[in-house]
């Protein structure tokens, strides 16, 4: 981790308070933060800035992962033999373990009981329409009530102040991400009022997304083999009108920690640092920026709606 003296909350971006400001009202109080994700690497890609920021701030940060990501596409040629092989899940578990150490956070899986937290109950469902979705242990097909009960049990032990997960569209529509959102909302809603954490979904203001694409167009050199999205290319569902994003974690100082964690997810992520700041690509070879900022909106667990 980068050495920093807590607290390190960045000033609000425009009118957006940080998550810790929302929970503490500016008091110098340590928090318990839990992020719930579908596969290894999702935690660092979607919430890596918040996780590293809160860990550096001195908060207790914990990640819960639903599956081993058995259906992931493998990028490096020397690891390509793992794609579609039963060994990919355990390999990605090792990547996740190292990435969590790089971020300085604790981790376990959504599993059947505290004695089995090292092994998830469900498996990666693959993209919509894939054969993996028909697997009897596919997470997207898990009964929401059953999975929510397991997560609620874990949250009742961890007693977080704050829970982070995807928006209702799962960020970009992956069935396991959508399921994770549903399960997390149901789990938080099932807790007694006195134990309920605040629940936030990751969302990106459209102005940030446009800025990131402009940055990529300037900074990603030709010959990388990567595609830079154009201003007219569609955005994923998690890119929304600026007014819907009510909170932000803005901390460029933790990007080196996020980069170190992403490098541990070598089967899934290719990190490049041949520009003014690092950027990355997944197996689709589309360049994406690491801007050191994440947007969030609070979710009402009783309705699943965003709180405005």
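-> sequence recovered:
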């Amino acid at each position: 981790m980068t050495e920093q003296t807590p607290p390190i909350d960045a000033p609000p971006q425009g009118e957006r308070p940080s998550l810790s400001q929302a929970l503490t009202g500016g008091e110098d109080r340590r928090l318990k933060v839990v992020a719930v994700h579908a596969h290894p690497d999702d935690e660092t890609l979607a919430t890596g800035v918040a996780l590293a920021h809160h860990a550096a701030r001195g908060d207790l940060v914990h990640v819960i992962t639903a599956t081993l990501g058995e259906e992931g596409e493998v990028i490096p040629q020397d690891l390509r033999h793992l794609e579609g092989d039963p060994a990919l899940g355990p390999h990605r578990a090792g990547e996740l373990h190292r990435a969590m150490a790089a971020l300085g956070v604790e981790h376990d899986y959504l599993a059947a009981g505290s004695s089995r937290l090292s092994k998830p109950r469900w498996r990666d469902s693959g993209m919509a329409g894939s054969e993996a979705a028909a697997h009897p242990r596919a997470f997207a097909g898990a009964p929401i009530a059953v999975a929510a009960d397991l997560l609620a049990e874990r949250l009742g032990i961890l007693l977080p102040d704050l829970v982070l997960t995807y928006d209702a569209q799962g960020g970009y529509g992956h069935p396991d991400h959508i399921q994770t959102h549903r399960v997390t909302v149901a789990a938080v809603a099932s807790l007694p009022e006195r134990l309920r954490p605040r629940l936030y979904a990751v969302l990106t203001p459209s102005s940030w997304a446009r800025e990131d694409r402009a940055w990529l167009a300037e900074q990603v050199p030709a010959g990388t083999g990567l595609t830079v999205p154009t201003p007219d290319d569609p955005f994923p569902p998690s890119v929304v009108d600026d007014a819907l994003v009510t909170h932000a974690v803005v901390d460029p100082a933790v990007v080196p920690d996020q980069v170190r964690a992403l490098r541990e997810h070598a089967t899934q992520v290719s990190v490049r640092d041949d520009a003014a700041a690092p950027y990355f690509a997944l197996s689709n070879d589309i360049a994406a920026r690491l801007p050191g900022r994440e947007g969030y909106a609070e979710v009402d667990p009783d309705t699943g709606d965003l709180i405005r």
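The first helix runs from residue 19 to 24.
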